[in-house]
């Protein structure tokens, strides 16, 4: 009898979970159904509304394309330490820790530097103190891009990644992409 009750409880739990996962995305989570980019539901303008973390993994080019397909500017470009601090707060406020995110900079071998792809500006020297241990290092080429990773030490740090590898991605929005629902 006890075994039958356990089986019945298990069945009910599985049924409830499967119903929850088949709900429309507007009811199940604050994400868009197409690419899984989080939409902030803020009631007031907030500088953090400018950044939209994905919940899906993708290659660097796919992330850039998905951001644009959702009317964002592209992958996030982080111009200074203050902007990085804001992005860290946005990711932590959304519970997006223990993830790695593509951002919008690729390595330019002829310059031996990273460049933001939307504005063509070089990544500033402020980044030097923001690298994950062991990065940058090793072989880098035109297929190397920047990632922002939550480390085991509980810090957000930059690292390099091959653009064909999968990671989440961080989109940057503009005024028209604020307060999406």
TrEMBL record:
The keyword DNA repair does not apply. Residues 1-28 form the signal peptide. It holds the Pfam family Lectin_C. It comes from Orchesella cincta. The lineage of its organism: Eukaryota, Metazoa, Ecdysozoa, Arthropoda, Hexapoda. This is Macrophage mannose receptor 1. Residues 51-157 form the C-type lectin domain. Keywords: Receptor, Signal.
């Amino acid at each position: 009898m006890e075994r039958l009750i356990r089986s019945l409880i298990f069945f009910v739990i599985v049924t409830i979970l499967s119903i929850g996962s088949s709900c429309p995305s507007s009811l199940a989570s604050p994400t868009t159904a197409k690419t899984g980019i989080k939409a902030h539901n803020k009631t007031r303008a907030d500088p953090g509304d400018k950044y939209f973390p994905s919940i899906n993994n993708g290659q660097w080019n796919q992330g850039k394309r998905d951001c644009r397909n959702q009317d964002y500017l592209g992958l996030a470009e982080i111009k200074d330490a203050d902007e990085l601090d804001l992005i860290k707060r946005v990711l932590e406020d959304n519970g997006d820790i223990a993830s790695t995110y593509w951002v919008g900079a690729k390595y330019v071998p002829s310059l031996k530097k990273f460049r933001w792809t939307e504005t063509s500006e070089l990544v500033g020297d402020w980044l030097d103190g923001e690298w994950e241990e062991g990065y940058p290092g090793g072989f880098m080429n035109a297929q190397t891009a920047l990632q922002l990773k939550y480390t085991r030490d509980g810090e957000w740090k930059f690292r390099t990644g091959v653009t064909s590898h999968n990671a989440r991605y961080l989109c940057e929005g503009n005024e028209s992409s604020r307060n999406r629902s």
